[in-house]
Every structure is written in C-alpha cells, then in structure tokens.
Amino acid sequence: MVPAPEPHARDGSRLLFSAARLVQRLQDDALAPLGLTRAAVIALEAVAPRPMNQEQLAAKVHVRSQSLGRVLGRLEEEGLVTRTRNPADRRQFQVQITAAGNAALETASHARSAAVPTDFEGWDSLLEQLARFLEFFETSQGQTARASEAPQHLKSFNPDVNPPAA
Q1: CATH number for the domain including 139?
Q2: Which of 9, 12, 23, 109 is such that its CA lies 20 to 30 A from the CA of 100?
Q3: How many domains does the chain have?
Q4: Which domain of life is it from (predicted)?
Q5: Distance between CA 56 and CA 70 in Å, rounded?
Q6: Is 18 a domain residue?
Q7: pLDDT tens track for 102-160
Q8: Domain for residue 144, yes or no?
C-alpha cells in the first residue's frame, strides 16, 4: 500500500535529504580509494587558503574542536596538514596544509566532481532553485540563525566545479 502524500514542504524536504544522501554516498565512494573522507576534505578545503588555529577552523566548518581534532590527527599522520603548538598559548594548535595536502585536495576535488553525473540536463535550474531556497531562509525573519549555520560548502555546490562539501 502506498502511503498518502504528505504536504508539499515535507515532500520537498524528503527529496532534498534523499538527493543529499545520494550525492554524499557517491562522493564517499569516490574518496574511499584515496583514503579520504568528506570530513577530511572539508577540513583541507577550509585550511587551504591560510593557516589558522584549530578553534577557528572548527568554527569555519561548523564542528566542535574535539571532533575536528580527530580528523586533523588522521590528516597529520598522512602528512596532509601540520599542527604546531602556539608558543604564546600552548592550548592552541596552528593548522597548515602541506604540499601533499594540496595535492590530495586537488585529487579529491576531481574525484568528487567525477562522482556526480554532469550529463543531467537540470543542473543549472536545480542549482538556481537551491540557491534561491537557501537565500530565502537566510533572509527570512526567525530563520536566519538556523540557515546561516549551514556550512558554506553546502551553499555553493556545483558538481562541475567543486564537490560541496562535514
């Protein structure tokens, strides 16, 4: 027996969740042979432009510093980032991407892009509609705080250019 259709907004959110999970699964499968996870790639993307301390990086990718610490530990073991204690505040670590990290990030970007089919005719309109959807919540009264918590990589997904991105 087919369940009765739900109101439009709920149907839409179910579709969004399903589409996001599908893209995440495709990207996870593409990253696995590289030994990377989405969380690792998001951390690399965030620290690539400039070194920053672990707390700044955690805030930038919208995770707790302790959770990020585990990801950074694995990245450091692989030689993709370095973490250096701040001599002025021994509790802080300065995180910097390495040359190997930049190379891994470039490879991961290509793998994630290739994981999502580019021959879907509706990408342009889908991206436009998703951008409008996010903008609506970012500018709506009462919704701004929740919508602005969405990680930046989720706001700028383009399967032809960048993978989205924790």
Answers
A1: 1.10.10.10
A2: 23
A3: 1
A4: Bacteria
A5: 16
A6: no
A7: 999 999 999 998 998 888 888 889 889 989 988 888 887 544 444 445 444 444 443 33
A8: yes
